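Handout, page 2. Input:
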Amino acid sequence: MHQRPARLALAAATAAALTGGLLALSVSPATAADRADRADRAFRADFNGDGYGDVAFAAPYGRVDGQGMAGYVAVTYGGPTGLDPAHRTVVSQNTAGVPGSAEAEDTFGDALAVADLDGDGHTDLVAGAPGENGGAGSVTVLWGSADGLRDGTTVKAPAAAAQDNWGRLLTTGDFDGDGHTDLAVGAYDHAYVIRGPLAPDGTTGTAQRIGTPEKAFIVDALQAGDTNGDGRSDLVLTYRTDLTSAPSGSWSKGVAYLGTASGPDTSVPRPLHGGTSIALGDIDGDGHDEIALGNVFTEEDDHTGTPGGQVVVIRGSEGGPVNGDAPMAELTQDSTGVPGADEARDGFGSAVSIADVDGDGHGELAIGVAFEDIGTTEDAGATVLMNGSATGVSRTGARTLTQGTTSVPGAVEAMDYFGSDILLSDVTGDGHADLTVTAGFEDEGVGAVWSLRGTADGVTTDGARSFGPGSFGQSRTYGAFGAHLIG
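Output:
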């Protein structure tokens, strides 16, 4: 459902000290009926088990107890009126029960993933800190409970070679179909799938190294979903090759590995388009997840790129992703039905997300355009919403949202990057996916988040809310709050 966004090139800066204590205000626990209904709702994260979708936001460059760029994660719990920061948990590596300590440039929260990893009925949150120990990296599971997130466990790297930005990418899925959720962790140029269940005492299953069909310079994005409807998760990743080895072709490439009883089958790679963000979800309603690949690389960077970025949607089928020469959609801002214009370095595809907003059984596609100019205001950012249909991505009814859209809080400002990350997920419990948008560089790097409700008529700006680190009891200083989110 969710995506992994393009990494924003945010410069390091000084920030005021943040309190590292756990701030937790929970709502009442779920009934058995609530929990039984969770599978029918359009969300993945329910940390406190109350039946409403929750959302976690990272401030990977946030200062914690005087340590610059140590990073922290803030969770707000959903409810019938939507996201409310009054019901929250804020976690750093200085929080009681969380392993490690907040250190300069750890970037805790620079990658996030969610799943019930220990099978207790509560969603757990996984946070990567790729800057830990001088770039060796670390991965921490924060455990869900009736009171929300509490305590944590370190997921050790399975090999010395993995300790190269370990935790810079994360996703979850049941890749072997055994009923236990597995954890996929990206290092610099490869990944590992760690078989579940994962336990609070640090116990895990075996680990499988995941490489790329050709030597990767770096892995850019990692995501999971079920493209062939067999009940096993498939693993999708994008990577860059050495530019000198592809002087007349694409240096950004993608691959899908189908899930099997023994995990992702890396012996039969399914080549895909490249990109910097990935989302999986069912757009045409046939029971197979489509793959949306956002690619912000321009034609100057990547020979198959466009001036402003593109999103390629690959159809799912009984046989897995159908790529070939005819994807379900190849979208730029010059494509039919896509608002805007394909302009240099707009960042179209900076983030992608798929879920059903209007309840018609077809997933909508949300696309971040983080560096879109609004009028003469540079890099203000925007988000494009496109409808799903039985034939795929609809070319009618698309719309653009910015901070200049009526009833959207805030103002259009340069370098806000509205659309840094996006999420379609039901946080109100009404069966309609709601839209959460972040601007990781709002107010010169402080960062902020917007929450808009989904309805039978699509996303509405009526009652739209915005909040930043101050709403979570944190200092409104540089930290890139909302650079990443998940729910």
